[in-house]
Design goal:
The chain is an all-alpha fold. It has one domain: Hypothetical protein af1432. It is 58% helix and 0% strand. The protein has helices at residues 10-15, 38-58, 65-74, 79-82, 87-90, 96-115, 120-123, 131-153, 160-174, 182-199. It is globular. The termini are far apart.
Length: 216
């Protein structure tokens, strides 16, 4: 029987499962100059959410910052137990994303029981189509773009095709966004396009984009 959620277990907070996001590396199958872990990604996504949220407020819209920042901090916390899955895995294999979501719910139950703090309700509302959910969706992709730009600055061009992949995700997201958020997508897509055009014709070979065997 699961233990009831009573009060925060400080020992579990300091040494438990959530600490493991600092050891889960992203882009695990790609050649990178410096590894980025999930904890670092989470920090930047939360910061980007805060900055975009404040900008949106200045433009006359209401933002629920409590919901926004809770979602940003928790959106990948289940990866402390599952590890990080590449987007081409999660979204390239039919039905796998839904199965991974179910597995993630199980991992979140484990984390809740360890910490004695309720988290699932906030975790399950991320990217829910609300203004706050869409800010998070944008910030999550901006975290990828920021890391790739860093890699390019360090001389690593092997993530070139990932830029076009991110651009496709932005294009899909753009269709459902509130009008106030379109600016962040369009400006980022312009930067992606400029960087891609600058480097795509280089004579130095880069890692090729894998063929999606499930697209046929």
């Amino acid at each position: 029987m699961e233990k009831p959620i009573e009060h925060l277990d400080l020992s579990a907070m300091l040494t438990g499962s959530v600490k493991r996001i600092a050891y889960v590396n992203r882009y695990s199958s790609l050649p990178v100059v410096r590894h980025e872990n999930v904890a670092e990604h989470t920090c930047f996504v939360a910061l980007f959410c805060l900055l975009i949220g404040k900008d949106v407020v200045l433009r006359g819209f209401n933002v629920d910052f409590e919901k926004l920042l809770k979602s940003a901090l928790l959106h990948d916390i289940d990866e402390s137990l599952s590890g990080d899955f590449l987007r081409c895995v999660k979204y390239g294999v039919p039905g796998l994303k839904e199965l991974l979501n179910q597995a993630g719910l199980g991992f979140m139950r484990s984390i809740e029981q360890q910490l004695h703090v309720e988290l699932i309700s906030d975790w399950s509302e991320v990217k829910d189509g609300t203004l706050e959910g869409n800010i998070l969706a944008i910030a999550d992709l901006l975290g990828v773009v920021s890391y790739i730009f860093e890699q390019f600055g360090a001389g690593n061009r092997h993530l070139l095709y990932i830029l076009k992949e991110v651009d496709r995700y932005f294009e899909q997201l753009e269709v459902t966004l509130q009008s106030v958020l379109i600016r962040y997508v369009s400006e980022t897509r312009s930067m992606i396009d400029a960087v891609y055009k600058k480097h795509r014709d280089s004579t130095v070979p880069t890692l090729k984009e894998p063929t999606n065997a499930f697209s046929a």
